[in-house]
Amino acid sequence: MIEAGSGVGQSVAQSPACLGARVAVWDLSQEGAKRTKTIEAHEGSAWPFAVDVADETAVCASTDDLTRIAGQIDFVVNCAGAVLSGGLEAMTLDQRRRSLEISVDRALNVCRAALSYLKEREQPCIVTVASAALSAYSGGGGYGLGPGKTSLAALSEQMAVEWGGHPSERREPGAADDGRVG
User: Fold this and answer.
1) 126 and 162 in contact (C-beta within 8 Å)?
2) How far apart are CA 142 and CA 65, in angstroms?
3) Distance from C-alpha of 155 to C-alpha of 26, rounded to nearest angstrom
4) Which label site among 25, 80, 133, 138 has the fewest CB atoms less than 10 Å from its CB?
5) Is the pLDDT of residue 104 over 80?
6) Is the pLDDT of residue 144 over 70?
7) Which of 179, 81, 168, 64 is nearest to 124 (CA)?
8) pLDDT higher for 26 or 167?
9) Cβ-count burial 39-53 (b if 16+ within 10 Å, e if not)
10) Is pLDDT of 46 > 90?
11) Are 88 and 148 in contact (CB under 8 A)?
12) Nearest to 50 by CA among 14, 25, 13
């Protein structure tokens, strides 16, 4: 399960798929999720799921659908993130909350929905994509990625502590050039 309609997530989804993994690509829109065609063009196998990972009920239903199709879940990769325009001073409280919701709350929804299935596996894994690329956004006044991804890193560590035998890894790639960063 990978939130991977575009950007870093789309790149992350291609790697395991090209190595033979069957990848479920989740995106807010069906159009985004259908970007799995690029994965399949590179000899990978992927299923598109249009799901709003902010909706816990929808996430649980999609997770159940996925297990009916795939039979199991071996790993989860949290890639959702958003760069919102404007600096900290200009951002409204609602914009700041939305940014944190995208990075943190949605990741927790996905991980909680997948946890019971992951517990069935011998070597389950949750990978959290934080970001070492904060400097790429600082000059343009983009807010959201830094505080959201830092909070996501803390969530990843908390999941590792609470869910002990189920490793939670954090990865910090550079920026993805997907046209959204100025």
Assistant:
1) no
2) 36
3) 20
4) 138
5) yes
6) no
7) 168
8) 26
9) beeeebebbbbbbbb
10) no
11) no
12) 25
- Cβ neighbours for 114, distance < 8 A, ≥ 6 positions apart: 1, 63, 73, 76, 126
Gap between the Cα atoms of 177 and 10, Å rounded: 11
The CATH code for residues 2-171 is 3.40.50.720
Distance CA 10, CA 179 (A): 13
Nearest Cα to 62, choosing from 14, 20, 109?
A: 109
Residues 6 or more apart whose CB falls under 8 angstroms from that of 55 comprise 109
Tokens of 21: 């993994």
Summarize pLDDT for 116-128 with one digit per residue, the tens: 888 888 878 888 8
CA–CA dist 5, 52 (Å, integer): 12
Q: How far apart are CA 177 and CA 166, in angstroms?
A: 32
Distance in angstroms (rounded) separating the CA atoms of residues 76 and 125: 6
Look at strands 22-27 and 45-50 and give their pairing: parallel
Helices and strands (H, E) in the chain, number of each type? 8, 6
Q: Domain ranges for the chain, please list them.
A: 2-171
Residue with tokens 């575009």: 6
In the DSSP assignment, the letter for residue 143 is: B
